UniProtKB/TrEMBL annotation:
This is Vegetative incompatibility protein HET-E-1. It comes from Rhizoctonia solani AG-3 Rhs1AP. Keywords: Repeat. The keyword 4Fe-4S does not apply. Gene3D superfamilies: P-loop containing nucleotide triphosphate hydrolases.
Length: 189
């Protein structure tokens, strides 16, 4: 799923994760952010400490050792349709690192018992990779969704989020109109 800044990718990803987690189908979620390298570095350091040989292999071998092989061993014991959410892939520090990550996902996703949902801004490297693999995945471009549908979604979001302060229908409608098609405006009220 891709869309311009403020269109609601992270809000959608977060809501999706909550719903999938309630059904016990969320395998993992990672919300990338330029502001917090600690979460990424900490997780990576733990993995590398446990298996120092992994860091010497190429990315394909790392993917196989860390994901494919362990999942193949337990695939009969885990539920079907487990989901991994990767939000804001465009916020990775290494711009050139996103292409190999997407290549690994496209090449190996069919061989692991997981479904991947990736969100990003339409950055050229990521958008190009995603466009080249349209046969193996579904792509949603948020900026292509009709404005009236986005307005309706924002209005519904505001109704639910502001239900504790009891705004009237007119106030919610006005706030939704002020939001335009930007969920970020509604989410920061």
């Amino acid at each position: 799923m891709n869309g311009m800044a403020g269109m609601g990718k992270t809000t959608i990803a977060s809501t999706f994760c909550e719903r999938v987690e309630r059904r016990k189908l969320l395998a993992a979620s990672f919300f990338c952010t330029r502001n917090s390298v600690e979460c990424r570095d900490l997780a990576l350091c733990k993995i590398l400490e446990q298996n120092s040989g992994i860091r010497l292999g190429n990315m394909q071998r790392q993917f196989e050792q860390l994901l494919k092989e362990p999942l193949q061993e337990v695939k009969d014991a885990i539920p079907d349709k487990l989901v991994v959410m990767i939000d804001a892939l465009d916020e990775c520090d290494d711009r050139h690192g996103t292409e190999p990550v997407l290549d690994m996902l496209f090449n190996y996703a069919a061989h692991v018992p997981l479904k991947f949902l990736v969100t990003s801004r339409p950055e050229s490297e990521i958008y190009g990779k995603m466009s080249a693999h349209t046969q193996s995945q579904a792509t949603i471009h948020l900026h292509d969704i009709e404005n009236s549908l986005v307005q309706s979604d924002i209005q519904q979001y505001l109704k639910e989020e502001l239900s504790t302060v009891f705004p009237g229908e007119v106030e919610v409608e006005q706030l939704a109109q002020h939001s335009g098609t930007l969920f970020i405006y509604a989410a920061t009220l």
